[in-house]
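Hey, I'm writing a tutorial for new members on how sequence and structure tokens pair up, and I'd like a real worked example in the thread rather than a made-up one. If someone can provide the structure for the chain below, I'll link this post from the tutorial.
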Amino acid sequence: MFLDSLVSRASSCIRQVAGGVRSQTVRFCRLFANRKVTLERLIEGWSTLTRTAVTGRHVLAIQDTTQVHFKTEPGRRRKLGVIGRGNARGVMAHVMIAVDASQGSLLGPVCGKIWTRRGLVRKPHELRGISQKESGRWQETAQSAKLILAAASMVTVIADRESDIFNEWASVPEKNFHLLTRANHDRSMPCGNKLSDAVNAMADQGLRTIKLPARAPNAPERDIELRLRFGTVQLRRPHHTADAKGMPDRVTLTVVDVLERNPRKGQKPVHWQLLTSHTVGTPEHAWQIVDWYRQRWVIEQLFRLMKSQGLDLGSSQLADAERLMKLTALVVHAATITLQLVQSRSGKSKEPADIAFTAQEIEALTEIEKPYNARTALQSNPHKHKSLAWATWIISRLGGWDGYPSSAPPGPITMRNGLERFQQITAGFTLKDVCIG
């Protein structure tokens, strides 16, 4: 019930989620205080629908970390650890999501980790094993995903530079389970050369223009031309690592290197040096690796929805870190549902409704749709019955959208209003067969 309200009201403020009703506010606060409602169980709940949604697909398992800044005062730290450069307090959230490799549609959250830092670690970084470091989350999450995504035909775990860890390259990949990570280190090779030396010796394999999404108001969307190089490389195990025992002395990977040609004056050229356990034999396959990596943008959209551009997680006033971490887990789930609906607005998505809605909710949507389809053919739901686009159309109509194809697509506010109405209707729908004697 709290998750439904969180999605529909598009806010992380408990009073707003409760609709201003004091009894409901108290009930929700007790939920977070309940020791039986654990952070681990909430994170486990992310994958309830995802496990089925990935069946038979090639899944891009995209993982990344975001920091959630909660406002604190010297006398009220709420047991929150430091984030950023040590000048703020908050929660760390490491999240993995499943995305369909061919369509780019978000299938749901997979797994992850949410924590707050407890203080400075005294033991030197190089003397700690991977399990004792924050960076161990990349490998741990990838390993956990193997069981959750077992029904997928293939999995490619995608991450940015911080996930370039030799231990991960040596232990995670296996048949039909791959890694694709942007290189963070100019690693040594068994021959004595560096990774950069190997890339510089590779021949150019063609050019392609791609669209780079807007990153900030001062970094708008733009087209860039990329030059491609790729080849097989062997990377040597680092000499100074606490995990050397049992690790191979080298790993064989593919490097796909793309560099922006003719960047705008004053702008640093885009340069992605991508390492992957996939075998790449042709330029077409190498460009496919680049396209898969570009899907990493989906998780950045998710983090935006969690924060100021959506659920505004940082504004929560819950009393302490434990409760804030539980709320963060629920906000991840709620933001995922919202992004799934946003993706399906155009009708191009072929995903079924059950990747975001339960069987009972789909039954309710079927009943809600009837009066809208009884008006005019032009305003009838044009999407396949029980598809996610079909469900999004109904939610949008509930939110006040007129349904005309010529009208602007429903925006976030319309979606939020529709979800709020849907929650109220569904609450009554669940009581339709209840007999009061």
